[in-house]
Amino acid sequence: MTATVAPTVGPGRVPEPLPELIGQLEQTWRDEPGILGWIKSVDHKSIALRYMITAFVFFLLAGLQALGMRAQLARPENTLLGPDLYNQFFTVHGTTMMFLFAVPVMQAVGLYFVPMMVGTRNVAFPKLNAYGYWTYLFGGLFIYAEWWFLNSGPDVGWFSYVPLANSVFTPGKRADVWAQGVTFTEIASLAAAVEIIVTVFKLRAPGMTLNRLPLFVWAMVVQSFMVLFAMPWVATATQFLAWERLVSTHFFDPTRGGDPLLWQHLFWFFGHPEVYIIFVPALGMVSSVVTAFTRRHVFGYPAMVLSLISTGVLGFGLWVHHMFATGIPQLSESFFTAASMVIAIPTGVQIFCWIATIWDGRPRFTVPFLWVIGFVVVFIIGGFSGVMVASVPFDRQVHDSYFIVAHFHYVLIGGAVFPLLGAFYYWFPKVTGRMLGERLGRWQFWLFFIGMNLTFFPMHQLGFEGMPRRVYTYLPETGWGPLNLLASIGAATLAVSVILLIVNVWSSLRRGLPAGDNPWDADTLEWATTSPPRPYNFALIPVVDGRGPVWRHPEGLPVFGGLRTDVRDVLLTTLLDAEPDSRHRHPVPTIWPLHAAIATTITFVSLIYTPWGAVVGFPLLFIAFVGWAWPRGRDHREQQVIEAERPVEVAS
């Protein structure tokens, strides 16, 4: 049965079918009730929310570890944390922030909003999406379980440099836990990247040509391609490390023909793009917020898109600037110095485009917009110090000092966490149907802004005064005590800010003001559906005839009818011009992705302790993926019904 357009529609909304067909859509797309239905869900919104909540829990755990380190360093010769425990805190904090929080949470925001922004009902591969989440969850739990219960917490830094990470200098299973734990997150990230790319290129609403994509969608596409090119390198590195430790392959042992610098090249060829994998989605978030709160389309759309793409491409040409102290040839130093400076240009272009947009508009200084202003201020500070360390002589002076810690956190917190929190306040009403408290939000912003600068700005001076990274204590004679105490007070201020965020969310979910469908009067398609969105996102697929479709059609958007309501029917469109192409029946909820993730976990974890893990794990993986892909009669019959019908019908 196909949908028929109802006679009325709300302002800026997608028209809906008649009520009886809405009920059929709800029945077709809903998850089964209870815990089993939650486990089997393949709805992109449900899975993305799990990603976000899980990533935020890991963020809180990493924050507690940071507070522990700052408490240890607040005064000279402190004994709160011993050297071994401090190394574990340091390593797990960095690993959690980089692998378990920053990349997954950015991809989760994309997995939630990209399908709605491009006007479709789900991501391209729903079962792969579910598998990616379960793999990510089990990988994070594995790292923390080994640390808490088996005293096998990683202690070699989030970068796990060899030869320190070799079995000679790090006996036991701690480095193995790090290597295999990171592999879980790589699988999840690669799965999410594939879903986003295919969703954007094949499931866009009719008329949404590539030059009409929202800037956030462009940012997620660029990030996803970066993940596809970057993650295999760290996967290769971690597997080489695991094999070297477990079966003595000697990739990094110079006495047997290996080279420890091979690890740095493999790791940083991923590690520097990793910074931009985190940063590029944040740029898209800033563009979304600036558009909504200035009521102006971002100035210079082609320049913004090209800047995103340039950032993604140039991000792969910088990795050696992490290795200036390793004795590489001077010609290489010159090349990577130039590249490290050039990459500031695309971001500068975007900042000037945002400033022009704000200048031309009438900005509303709500909480999401405050986070954008804070992002510009903090990130520019981090960008200036980044250009400084691109200079080889300067980099050699501050290498492995607290100046690098300051730069690193200004770039990542300013460039990722500030936009992320702005996006959180911006999209919270769409996800929950409730508004976050404005007063608590302002308090939280100012405490976070002050705490951020109070924590990390003094570290620049500590680096100039010679304080090295990764030390668990220092002597009183160094004179580093007052600045470290100031940084620790700043960390406590950050903690209070995060507590206020939790209180704000809790109180808003219980008694927050109803948001309505589009409380910010924004322009992209996710605001053209209900708050919170229904399981199928859009009963009728919108038709796009320009950028900012909600603003172009305040009386209601034109739509395509013709999709069935009794099966999970989605529209496929052409790659460039988004013309209707065909239809596809999406899978129903299934438990096989969870089975596959469990089999993956058994395989990777058991291989740390015995080669027999492969004998057990690979058959389990084979069974799980056969069950996943096994054709079912109902699926085949429903797809035949869909393909036999006319592809689309136009409604206005």
Description:
With 652 residues, this protein is an all-alpha fold. Helix content is 64%, strand content 3%. It has 20 helices and 5 strands. It has helices at 19-29, 34-40, 44-73, 83-117, 126-150, 174-202, 215-247, 260-294, 301-314, 330-342, 344-360, 367-389, 392-398, 402-432, 438-464, 481-511, 549-552, 592-609, 612-629, 633-644, and strands at 541-542, 559-561, 569-573, 580-585, 649-651. A 3-stranded antiparallel β-sheet has the order 1-2-5, with no helix packed on it. Strands 3-4 form a two-stranded antiparallel sheet. Strand 3 (569-573) and strand 4 (580-585) form a beta hairpin. Helix 4 (83-117) runs parallel beside helix 6 (174-202), helix 7 packs parallel to helix 9 (301-314) and helix 18 (592-609) packs antiparallel against helix 19. It is globular and about 75 Å long. The two termini are 19 Å apart. 50% of the residues are buried. The model is unreliable at 1-10 and 648-652 (pLDDT under 50).
Strand residue content: under 5%
Quaternary structure type? single chain
Overall shape: it is globular
Q: Work out the radius of gyration.
A: 25 Å
Mean pLDDT figure: 91
Helical content stands at 55-70%
The main pleated sheet reads as: 3 strands, antiparallel
C-alpha end-to-end distance: 19 Å
SS element count, helices: 20
Ranges where pLDDT stays below 50 over 5 or more residues in a row are 1-10, 648-652
What is the topology, as strand order, of the major beta sheet? 1-2-5
Q: Structural class, please?
A: mainly alpha
How many DSSP E strands? 5
What string, H for helix and E for strand, traces the elements in order?
HHHHHHHHHHHHHHHHEHEEEHHHE
